[in-house]
């Protein structure tokens, strides 16, 4: 990579001088990203921005049209220099540091040192007054710079031969030691042109190979004296910036530029775009994979539940036996043992038998024998309904899984920002829909409560027992939903879901919801039942009260016949 190579910086400083950077005033310096600093420069004709990238793997400096500063999430720097003209732009003779010098000896030093890259404001004595990165470590100290004597130079022919004599190192290690100023990219190119492997021991090189390598290095130095900036690409993403042709990257796409500044800007901005694309693609992939995992887990759980024998038949048997023996069951009993008069023949058909096995049936002592029987009939209905709901849910989840897996497969074909945009458009519903967690919440709600659709497409939720009533009223109902309950008798809490706050459902809709509340009450057999109707916000639960027990502060009463919506009657009855 030659983004911050000394030769690149030499050419860049020369271009800055030619573009009239000297004399422009610095009017702003700010950061909107932890590793990027923007300095706004102004001349009578134009405003421009000098961009410094301190990203460890992508140190760079380039000039472009003005980048406007956002009002939020911005940190400003070097404010005491605002309005001050640049007196000189120069590159340190031995280090990758560019100085923007101002009057009275003050300067901004741009150090492109890889992971230690920084931009600092120096006083006339070279002491750091302000630092873009790591101010606690830098402010108040002198900027450390390499001495000119540390600059590596091209070796003479005899010197070059001696560095390989009696060496135990590889050729690449020796070149990095004596030609580090060329950088790894150009040293790799030198070895490639010479046909020498990087790991080749120096001691085995023939004199011919040494001479060939020396000639290649001279060739590279000559090419650097007449540089042509170019960028090499792989899959449309910038990989390397070089000032000379790279034969070892001949299989890559490439693009030449008229200036170093244009090449650097193109490389950084294209790389940032590629990084953004990669990040977005990875995020979408993670979301889809997480969704796939959740769906698989949910499907496996339901499949395991469905494989278990349904308890509906057992509950129905209990209920039937209790109905037959009502007069034999003492009130308040916790259980009773009854003879199962229904036996299965070898062909699977049921028939009556006086020699059936004894069945122990648990009872609720607070219910009468008839109420216990009704309770088991209801549990049998719930068990069958639950199984049917699970089968329907399993089908929905499998369809959803197929959709997610299809999207994951299509995502593998996405290779650039344009195809990612097309992918988003194609799968926007999938990517914008609530996650499985929200889908599971909806399923949980349907499992906890009975749900009905009434006139106008409104949803009605009905509690199934005391704890379910509490959940419905205190957790799931919104304050402006309508709450309904048969007046003066025990029964289910019923909630008519209101779509928007401040809107009222039609009278027919409320009437149907009241009929449902009447149906799910102990007064179901009555011809007319009074039903409380109020907004959920007027319903409160006292601390320590029994499950399903609430207080109502304000109410209206409708007199209705107990009934279910026509689409549900057959299933429920």
Describe the structure.
There is one protein chain. The chain has 573 residues and is an alpha+beta fold. The chain has four domains: 6-149, ibrinogen binding protein from staphylococcus aureus domain (ibrinogen binding protein from staphylococcus aureus fold, Roll); 150-260, Orthogonal Bundle (Helicase, Ruva Protein, domain 3); 312-432, no CATH class; 448-572, no CATH class. Helices cover 39% and strands 21% of the residues. The chain is built from 15 helices and 26 strands. The strands form seven sheets. Strands 1, 2, 3, 4, 5 and 6 form a six-stranded antiparallel sheet that branches. Helix 7 (260-307) packs antiparallel against helix 9 (369-411). Residues 569-573 have low confidence and may be disordered.
Question: How would you sum up the major sheet?
Answer: 6 strands, antiparallel
Number of domains: 4
N-end to C-end Cα span: 77 Å
Total helices: the number is 15
C-alpha geometry: elongated
Any idea of the CATH class of the largest domain?
Answer: Mainly Beta
**What is the H level of CATH, i.e. the homologous superfamily of the largest domain?**
ibrinogen binding protein from staphylococcus aureus domain
Structural class by helix and strand composition: alpha+beta
CATH topology of the largest domain: ibrinogen binding protein from staphylococcus aureus fold
- The assembly state of the depicted protein chains is single chain
Could you name the key traits of this structure?
Helicase, Ruva Protein, domain 3; 4 domains; 573 residues; 39% helix; alpha+beta; ibrinogen binding protein from staphylococcus aureus fold; disordered C terminus; 21% strand; 15 helices; elongated
């Amino acid at each position: 990579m030659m983004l911050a190579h000394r030769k690149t910086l030499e050419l860049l400083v020369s271009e800055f001088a030619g573009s009239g950077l000297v004399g422009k005033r610095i009017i702003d310096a700010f950061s909107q990203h932890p590793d990027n600093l923007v300095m706004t420069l102004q001349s009578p004709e134009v405003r421009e921005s000098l961009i410094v990238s301190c990203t460890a793997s992508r140190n760079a400096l380039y000039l472009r049209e003005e980048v406007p500063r956002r009002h939020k999430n911005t940190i400003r720097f070097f404010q005491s220099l605002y309005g001050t003209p640049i007196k000189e732009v120069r590159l340190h003779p031995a280090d990758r540091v560019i100085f923007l010098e101002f009057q009275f000896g003050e300067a901004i030093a741009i150090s492109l040192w890889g992971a230690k890259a920084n931009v600092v404001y120096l006083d006339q004595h070279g002491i750091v007054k302000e630092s873009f990165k790591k101010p606690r470590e830098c402010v108040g100290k002198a900027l450390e710079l390499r001495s000119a004597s540390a600059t590596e130079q091209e070796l003479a022919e005899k010197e070059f031969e001696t560095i390989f004599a009696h060496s135990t190192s590889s050729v690449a290690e020796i070149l990095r030691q004596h030609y580090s100023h060329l950088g790894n990219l150009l040293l790799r190119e030198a070895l490639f042109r010479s046909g020498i492997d990087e790991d080749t021991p120096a001691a085995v090189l023939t004199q011919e190979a040494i001479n060939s390598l020396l000639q290649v290095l001279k060739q590279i130095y000559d090419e650097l004296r007449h540089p042509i900036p170019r960028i090499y690409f792989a899959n449309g993403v910038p990989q390397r910036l070089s000032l000379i042709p790279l034969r070892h990257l001949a299989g890559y796409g490439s693009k030449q530029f008229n200036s170093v500044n244009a090449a650097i800007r193109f490389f950084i901005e294209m790389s940032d775009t590629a990084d953004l694309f990669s990040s977005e693609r990875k995020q979408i992939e993670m979301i889809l994979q997480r969704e796939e995992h959740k769906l698989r887990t949910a499907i496996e759980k339901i499949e395991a539940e469905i494989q278990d024998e349904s308890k509906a038949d057992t509950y129905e048997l209990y209920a039937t036996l209790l109905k037959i023996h009502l007069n034999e069951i003492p009130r308040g009993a916790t259980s009773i043992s009854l003879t199962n008069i229904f036996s299965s023949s070898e062909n699977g058909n049921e028939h009556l038998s006086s020699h059936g096995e004894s069945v122990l049936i648990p009872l609720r002592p607070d219910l009468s024998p008839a109420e216990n029987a009704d309770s088991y009939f209801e549990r049998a209905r719930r068990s069958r309904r639950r199984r049917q709901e699970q089968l329907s849910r399993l089908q929905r989840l499998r369809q959803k899984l197929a959709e997610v897996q299809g999207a994951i497969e299509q995502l593998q074909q996405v290779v650039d920002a344009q195809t990612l945009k097309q992918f988003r458009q194609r799968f926007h519903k999938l990517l914008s829909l609530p996650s499985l967690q929200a889908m599971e919440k909806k399923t949980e709600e349907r499992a906890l409560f009975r749900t009905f659709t009434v006139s106008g497409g409104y949803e009605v939720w009905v509690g199934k027992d005391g704890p379910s009533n509490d959940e419905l009223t205190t957790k799931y109902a919104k304050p402006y939903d309508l709450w309904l309950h048969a007046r003066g008798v025990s029964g289910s809490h019923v909630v008519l879901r209101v779509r928007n706050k401040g809107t009222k459902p039609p009278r027919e809709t409320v009437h149907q919801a009241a009929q449902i509340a009447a149906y799910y009450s102990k007064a179901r057999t009555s011809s007319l039942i009074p039903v409380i109707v109020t907004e959920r916000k007027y319903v409160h639960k006292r601390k320590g009260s029994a499950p399903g027990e609430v207080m109502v502060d304000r109410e209206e009463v409708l007199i209705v016949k107990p009934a279910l919506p026509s689409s549900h009657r057959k299933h429920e009855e």
